[in-house]
Amino acid sequence: AQSVAQPEDQVNVAEGNPLTVKCTYSVSGNPYLFWYVQYPNRGLQFLLKYITGDNLVKGSYGFEAEFNKSQTSFHLKKPSALVSDSALYFCAVRPFNAGNNRKLIWGLGTSLAVNP
Amino acid sequence: NAGVMQNPRHLVRRRGQEARLRCSPMKGHSHVYWYRQLPEEGLKFMVYLQKENIIDESGMPKERFSAEFPKEGPSILRIQQVVRGDSAAYFCASSPGGSTEAFFGQGTRLTVV
Which of A48, A91, B32, B34 is a Cys-bridge partner for B75, taking CB atoms 3.0 to 4.6 Å apart? Predict the structure, then answer.
């Protein structure tokens, strides 16, 4: 079965330190990969996506993600965390044969807490 | 430009009642998508609609669930004869086209008692 795993329910980092939120996937073919963020009392917001090309993708708010095909991973990173980055982060994958762009397979989310 | 608006934010229904969830897409967006998030599970695609048309409803249960996106007014996700298992967060997203990124609403949390 196709799936997306975010192995950490929660990630804690100190402000100014680098952060990584992990995502691995198991889907057939060459998928499209996405990261979304949900701030408290707000809807999901698109951060970045990988479709093809350079494995390092840069997105909103200084975030980036690296696509690693051999490890089937798409970890989200930021060189220097801000307290305002504290939120819930979702990884999502669209299998290549999904049929429409909205049939994404979603991870369960990782809660990021950045401590001042 | 207001974001995607969903209402109500919280909805409590007794078993057997009907639940109506509303989604007003962002201005200029003609594509709407509904997702369901069950406890301890990720978001699951339910249905994709354009104005007056259902494009893909493959993720929606065949019984009791229906969705519409009329020419005027919000998109409605309707759940008839709700059961406890329908308790979940329902998210709506919209986009101006089928291939562009979608913008999500805050969700409606349905609780069936």
Answer: B32
Q: Which residues of chain B does A105 touch, with a Cβ-Cβ cutoff of 8 Å?
A: 42
Cα separation, B34 vs B15, in Å, equals 22
- Distance from C-alpha of B47 to C-alpha of A59, rounded to nearest angstrom: 27
Three-state DSSP string of chain B: CCCCEEECCEEEECCCCCEEEEEECCCCCCEEEEEEECCCCCEEEEEEEECCEEEECCCCCCCCEEEECCCCCCEEEEECCCCHHHCEEEEEEEECCCCCCCEECCCEEEEEC
Q: What is the DSSP letter of A16?
A: T
Q: CA of A104, closest CA in chain B: separation in Å? A: 7
Q: Are strands A32-38 and A87-94 parallel, antiparallel or unpaired?
A: antiparallel
Subunit contact A4:B44, Cβ cutoff 8 A: no
Residue A30 has pLDDT above 60, yes or no: yes
**pLDDT, tens digit, 9 for 90 and up, residues B54-95:** 999 989 999 999 999 999 999 999 999 999 999 999 999 998
Q: Which among A99, A105, A108 has CB closest to B56?
A: A99
Q: How far apart are CA A16 and CA A28, in angstroms?
A: 37
pLDDT at A101 over 90: no
Note whether A28 contacts B: Cβ–Cβ < 8 A: no
CB–CB contact B42 A105 (8 Å): yes
Distance from CA of B67 to the nearest CA of A (A): 16
